[in-house]
Amino acid sequence: MDNKYRLELAGISKELLLILEFLKRDEYAPLIEPQLLINVDWNLFINLVNHHRLYPLLYRKLKLVKKGLIPKFVIEYIEQKYKQNTFQMLLLSAEMEQISKLFNQGEIRSLFLKGPILAQELYGDVSLRTSSDLDILIPINKLENAERLLENLGYEKDDYIQTVLNDWKWRHHHVTYIHPEKRLKLEIHWRLNPGPSKEPSFEQLWERKTRSSLISYPVYLLGKEDLFLLLVSHGARHGWSRLRWLLDISQLLNQKLDWPKVGKLLRTYHFQNEGGQSVILASELLGSKISENMTSLLLGEKQSQLAQQATFYFKQMVNLHTNPVPNEIAVYHKRYLFSLMSVQRKIVFIVNFFHPYPEDAHTLPLPKQFHFLYFPLRPLLWAWRKMRQQALS
C-alpha cells in the first residue's frame, strides 16, 4: 500500500538526510544524484555515521558512487571502520560459541538477543551490523550459576545494582560483565526490558526460539515475532537516537513475519504505540514498504505523533548512555517516554512511583527488618530530596 504518513524533517542536517538517502537506495541501483553531494560537511557526515553506527552498510554503498564525488578520506575512514567492525564481530562470534557451550554444560538455557547472531538473522552477514557486546537472556534463577561460570572464565562483574526490597528483579533487566584481557563485554539479561512493564516469560520465549545458522554449535535467538517486540521496545525507549536500531526494524519488515501474531504480542504487552511508531519511522526515513498485513499495527494519529516526536533525536547527536545527559534532552526524553506508554502502562508507572527506591534508603538508612517502613515514608523522602535539590540549585 502507499505510505500516507509524512514527517516534518525541518532542523535535520543535510548530512543526515544524505545518509538516509544512501540507506534507502537499493544497493545495485544508481545510488545518488551528484547535486546531493554538493556543499556537504564531510567531517559532520563522518561523525554522524559513527554516532548512528552505520558504517558497515554505508561502506558497501559508498564504494559504488562514481569516483571523485565523495572525498577520498571519507571512503578510507569508513572502510577502516568497516574492517575493524568485521574483526570485532568475528571475535564476538567466537565468544558467543564459547559462552553458549559453557552455559549448556552448566545447564543454563540461553537466548542471544543481539550481537553477531542478530546481524546474521537480519542482514545475512555479520559484517553488516555493529555490536560492542553480547546480550544474553537466561532464567532469573540461573543468575548466580552464570556469574560463577563467567568469573571462572575471567569475566568481572561491572554493574553493582543498588536495590531495596528486591526491586532489582523487576526495575532492572541486566547486569554487565567485562573481560579485562579480551576487552569484551557481556550483558546477562533476566528481562527483555527494564520494568515496570509486562513482557513474555522466559519459558514462553524459549518455546518460540529459533536456532541460528551462524555457527554449527546450537545457538538460539528469539523467534521473529518476539524479536520484533524486543527491537521496537528497545529502540523506542532510546528515542531511536541511533539509526542502526531503526535500520534493524527496516530489515525485519522485509522478512516473513506472522503479522497477526505480532499484533497480538504488541496488544498483550501494551507496546502498540512503539510498534506503529517504528513502522512509520522505517517507512518515512528508510523507505520501507508498509504491506497490507502491517496495517493492523497502525492505529491512528497517536503513533504518527510519536514518530514525529522521535525526530527530535535526529536533529542532534543524542547520547542517552553517557552521563550527564544535557538537561534539555533529559527533560524532553522523560516526557517522551511517558507519552509512549499506553494507559495501562501509565497507571502501572504511577503506582510504581510509590514503591521504595534505593535513594530512599540513602536518605534515611534503616535496618533491613524495617525496610517495609519505606512504603509510607516514600512520599516524604521524595519531597525532602526535591527540596534539597532546589535549595542547592
Account of the 3D structure:
The protein is α+β, with helices and mostly antiparallel strands. The protein folds into 2 domains: 93-342, Beta Polymerase, domain 2; 356-392. The protein is 51% helix and 6% strand. It is built from 17 helices and 7 strands. The protein has helices spanning 14-24, 42-51, 55-62, 72-105, 116-123, 143-152, 168-171, 202-207, 224-237, 243-253, 259-268, 272-286, 301-310, 327-340, 343-352, 358-363, 374-392; strands spanning 111-112, 134-137, 156-157, 174-179, 184-189, 210-211, 220-221. The chain has a 5-stranded mixed β-sheet. It has a two-stranded antiparallel sheet with strand order 6-7. Helix 3 (55-62) packs across helix 4 and helix 10 (243-253) crosses helix 12. The longest helix is centred in the first third of the chain and has 34 residues, at 72-105. It starts with 13 loop residues before the first helix and ends with a helix. The model has no long low-confidence stretch (mean pLDDT 93).
List keywords for this structure.
393 residues; alpha+beta; Beta Polymerase, domain 2; 2 domains; five-stranded mixed beta sheet; two-stranded antiparallel sheet; 17 helices; 51% helix; 6% strand; globular; Renal dipeptidase; NTP_transf_5
